Amino acid sequence: MLLVGRFLLTADPRGHGTHEQLGLAPCLPMQRWGIPCPACGLTTSVTHFAHGEWWDSILGQPLGFALGLAALILPFATLAAHLRGVDLGRALLHPRTPRAIGAGLAFAGLCWVYRLFVAS
Fold first, then answer.
1. Each residue of 24-74: pLDDT tens digit?
2. For the range 51-55, what are the long-range contacts, defined as Cβ-Cβ under 8 Å and sequence gap of 24 or more?
3. Which of 6, 19, 57, 103 is in the most buried spot, having the most CB atoms within 10 Å?
């Protein structure tokens, strides 16, 4: 995904809409009401991240920066866990997993609020 963003996409200067370069439809809430949807700016932010424009990625949509960072780190972390013999299936059943998912969803919600009031 990051390689696609790096070589095929150019970040839209509006801060959203980069996904339209992939043939996807424009954001309906943004088009109709001028309000960004929760995913608005993600493709643009990840594209900035892939081009090494990390500050633009953070300012545009912090969740996109976090997803770009995760896309870089997780393959290596997964490989390291596998080499250590960690059962990743059992690790996902850990009692803390629901809290981690909840924290991730809360972060995504805060990023949307940021887009609503700061970055739009």
1. 899 999 899 989 999 999 999 999 999 999 999 999 999 999 999 999 999
2. 51/5, 51/6, 51/11, 53/11
3. 57
